[in-house]
Amino acid sequence: MRVRSLFGSIIPVGIIAAFALASAGCMYDSSRTIAKQTQQHNAAHYTPATLQAEGPAPEERASTPPSRPKTMRVRALVSKAFTAHVIDTPKYMRDLFDDANKMTEPSLGIHLELEATRPWDAAPDEDTAKAITSLETSEPGKDVDFVAGFIGALPRMTQSFHEIGRGAVVGKHLVVRAPGSAETHDAVERSFNQLTDDERRKLRKDIARHRAAVVFLHELGHTLGCIHETEPTSIMVPEYNRRVTTFGPEARTLMRATLEKRRNGASDDEVLKAVGDFLRTAPPAAFVADDRNRLLSDIDARATAQQPRTQVQTEAAPAPAALETPGLSPADREKFLQANEAYSKAEMVRAWNTAKPLFEAYRNSFEVQDLRCKIATNSMPFDMARRECDRLMKLATGKAR
Q1: Do 248 and 50 meet the contact criterion of CB atoms below 8 Å apart?
Q2: Which of 171, 158, 177, 253 has the alpha carbon at shortest distance from 215?
Q3: Who contacts 360 (Cβ-Cβ below 8 Å, separation ≥6)?
Q4: Which of 11, 119, 325, 348 could form an S-S bond across to 379 if both were Cys, CB 3.0 to 4.6 Å?
């Protein structure tokens, strides 16, 4: 079959059909190219920012001569759930410490060295607060600088640092979760299906490494006395985001001061006091106000709770019979008096073990909870003591239920 063109020539129908098919193919290839270019543009936007280390402030550089980074040893405890999420744990650790040191060496003057990786069979993976309490109890880490616990990923996506990690404020313990790789993998596969396998693989790797390094560095920052910053690109923001690049200048100054005090043998109480002094004079807009006020309140409460112990060291201990213990049974009153006597002699382990059964049995007893807080304050890291004092604070402010 033939048809006449507009110019009078005869054109076979087969040629017309072939031309139509070729045109359609070109249109298809063009739309696919546009889709791929769009996804490549979006992938570039989705790729996390590169972490950028900043050195000490100019005034610190002027007063402190440059020196080699100080090596600080980190002991890692790894739960079964973590190893189930991470295919190659040794490689994960190597990558994590490489990425972290690129930040800590210039910014804080420390080199983190993985001392050992040990199994953590009793890890409570369901909650970071429980996990860090368990870590502090099971691995004091007296012969290392930091103890890091690695637990399983959450079954859902979250950006809250408190859900994907936890660091003891002025301490040596921190907990981080495994990356939630399943959701990230599915999101990348769905959103970037026009990219090559290698391009998608690289994007997933960049996302995972950025998140792992930022969470680890964030919790490390807490152990060095730093609270949440307000700058959206700071590692110390309250919630993770892909635009995070560095520690803010106030955070760096505070953490370097903490490290210096530790090198000089300062106790946690002395470091906490210095942290409080720094926060009181730091620019108000630098840190999250609620976090600043809460920590300063906790530091003041800790200082107040320690005053009775100072008096005990210089004055005769009050007679146990003079203590008021309303509401306690005779047997429990005897335990309370024994625990208080042990506390007055600075025998904190015996005092805690003797009084521990009373803490939950008498949750509304001010005297019992006061003793609980005093023992904890004088024998535990700051974050653990704060949790043990929480009930007393609620009773004192009328918020107890």
Answers
A1: no
A2: 177
A3: none
A4: 348
